[in-house]
Amino acid sequence: QFFKFCRAEGHSKNHYTYKPEYVRDFVAYRLEEGRSYETIMSDLTAFNKLDDMLKASQLDRYGEIKYEPQNFSKVVAEIRAELKVEMNTEHVNRAFKNPLNVIANLKSDEAKMCATLQLNYGLRVMNTSNIKLNENGTMFVVSKAGYTVKEFKISQADYDKLKEFSNGKSSFQLIDYKKYLAEIKEACDKCGEIY
User: Fold this and answer.
1) How far apart are CA 89 and CA 83, in angstroms?
2) In 13, 124, 138, 158, which residue has its Cα 20 to 30 A from 20's Cα atom?
3) Spatial distance between the Cα atoms of 74 and 72, rounded to a whole number of angstroms
């Protein structure tokens, strides 16, 4: 699932080069999906094992360390500590009271477009920050369950706006995931929403 996520985010297919920050992005994505605390903890345990497996398989495959080993254990420990605090607090509904106000307070047009796609079509960030356009006015998206929807319908106005951001490419990054989250946090601070 992690490898599939990384490829969908536009990272290399070479899993030996995956960085620890991709682990943090994957966990954020899993939380966005509504995965339980226990599931996330299992994921984190698997990441520590994956780290060891990538080092061992690299030695078997190349006879030497060809790619710089990535150390997932530090970021895994950080995420565990953060989640322990977060999950022991009272549950807060993550929906915004006024999402249109949050969108209006976003700085960049790219962030506004990304948030508008999420709001209008119920798409996840991975489908709205990294865009795949089809010639017939639809988008290629990956659903919550990991299934692909080859021709996801959006309005002509949204399609045309995305074309403006595309620089003539069919696949492009509308906005960096971390930049998008930072903009949402800042917009929430401005309009009194809970981030």
Assistant:
1) 10
2) 124
3) 6
CA-closest candidate to residue 91, choices 194, 161, 190 = 194
- Stated as kind and residue range, the H or E segment containing 53 is helix 37-62
Token output for 165: 């951001």
Residue 177 corresponds to which tokens in the numbers above?
A: 């995931």
Q: Provide the 10 A C-beta neighbour count for residue 122.
A: 9
Q: Which two tokens stand for residue 163?
A: 């074309």
CB 32 within 8 A of CB 124: yes
Place of tokens 């060891």: 52
d(CA 162, CA 146): 23
**pLDDT one-digit tens code per residue, 104-150:** 999 999 999 999 999 998 888 888 998 999 999 999 987 655 668 88
